[in-house]
């Protein structure tokens, strides 16, 4: 009886010491791997859910400013001046990069730099997808089929859409203003002979190298159509005036013949 009691006290004492150690340190040994669902972990932490649907869940208290993060960072930041030192996946209820109203949430991917943030990618709870928010963040470009995007969206391939709306300023209604100087057809002909394309329209070589801005090009083409329309109106006026003169001349000849 005394032996069993002694063993029991020793075990309890060891449990208390171990519990006290874990409570104070809240750490695992410095070496070795941790496995959940596996007895042979190959990394610092390895989870094996097997055939069931299991994973990792992170909760917050649900307050308006509550968020939960997964961070990938480095300790030595002395050599970092502009580059990101931390990448974050954040579930935020305040919608920091998306300006969500209270009550909604967003999942935001972004990098932390010494002087701000870099190109956050945000999934809003209403289904919107936002890249490179303007809130205290450096914007980036998106490339599809290319690793060197030069525009906000660069696509090396085909795009199919039901409708494309392009916003542009300085729409060429000014061509119809009274003070607009309409280039003569002689001037246009001279430019074509010297340059091989219409004035104000990029050459084939420029289009090959730089592409075409749809909004800008539509405005330029409309300008040419409006100028051509003014020339046609002027030609029609001259033709109508000449036709009227010819009709009057014919009537006068007919009167002379009758005499």
Can you describe what's shown?
The chain is an alpha/beta fold and 259 residues long. Among the domains are: 87 residues, no CATH class; 87 residues, no CATH class. It contains 4 helices and 10 strands; from the N terminus they run H-E-E-E-E-E-E-E-E-E-E-H-H-H. The longest helix has 45 residues. The protein is elongated. The model has no long low-confidence stretch (mean pLDDT 83).
Biggest pleated-sheet summary: 6 strands, mixed
Along the chain, the helix and strand elements come as HEEEEEEEEEEHHH
**What would you call the quaternary organization?**
single chain
Structural class: alpha/beta
Strand content: 15-25%
List the uncertain runs.
Answer: none
Helix content: 25-40%
- What would you call the shape? elongated
The total count of strands amounts to: 10
Span of the ends, CA to CA: 158 Å
Average pLDDT, rounded to a whole number, is 83
Discrete helix count: 4
Radius of gyration: 38 Å
Signal peptide: 1-24
Protein name: Endosialidase-like protein
Keywords: Signal
Characteristics:
signal, alpha/beta, elongated, two-stranded parallel sheet, 259 residues, 10 strands, 4 helices, 34% helix, 6-stranded mixed beta sheet, single chain
Quickly describe the structure.
This protein is an alpha/beta fold.
Topology:
Elements lengths: L1 H24 L8 E3 L8 E3 L19 E7 L12 E7 L13 E8 L2 E9 L4 E3 L5 E2 L3 E3 L8 E3 L29 H11 L8 H7 L3 H45 L1
């Amino acid at each position: 009886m005394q032996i069993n009691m002694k063993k029991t006290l020793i075990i309890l004492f060891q449990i208390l010491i171990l519990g006290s150690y874990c409570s104070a340190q809240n750490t695992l040994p410095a070496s070795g791997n941790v496995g959940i669902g596996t007895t042979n972990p190959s990394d610092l932490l390895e989870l094996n859910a097997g055939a069931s649907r299991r994973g990792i869940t992170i909760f917050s208290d649900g307050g308006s400013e509550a968020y939960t993060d997964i961070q990938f960072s480095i300790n030595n930041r002395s050599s970092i001046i502009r580059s990101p030192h931390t990448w974050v996946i954040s579930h935020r209820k305040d919608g920091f990069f998306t300006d969500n109203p209270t009550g909604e949430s967003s999942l935001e991917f972004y990098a932390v730099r010494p002087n701000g943030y870099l190109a956050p990618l945000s999934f809003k709870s209403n289904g919107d997808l936002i890249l490179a928010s303007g809130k205290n963040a450096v914007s980036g470009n998106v490339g599809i089929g290319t690793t060197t995007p030069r525009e906000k969206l660069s696509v090396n391939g085909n795009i199919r859409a039901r409708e494309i709306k392009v916003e542009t300023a300085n729409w060429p209604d000014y061509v119809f203003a009274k003070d607009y100087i309409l280039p003569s057809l002689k001037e246009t002909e001279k430019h074509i002979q010297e340059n091989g394309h219409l004035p104000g329209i990029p050459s084939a070589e420029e289009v090959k190298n730089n592409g075409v801005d749809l909004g800008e090009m539509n405005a330029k083409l409309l300008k040419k159509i409006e100028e051509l329309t003014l020339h046609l109106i002027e030609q029609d006026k001259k033709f109508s005036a000449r036709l009227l003169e010819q009709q009057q001349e014919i009537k006068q000849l007919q009167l002379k013949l009758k005499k």
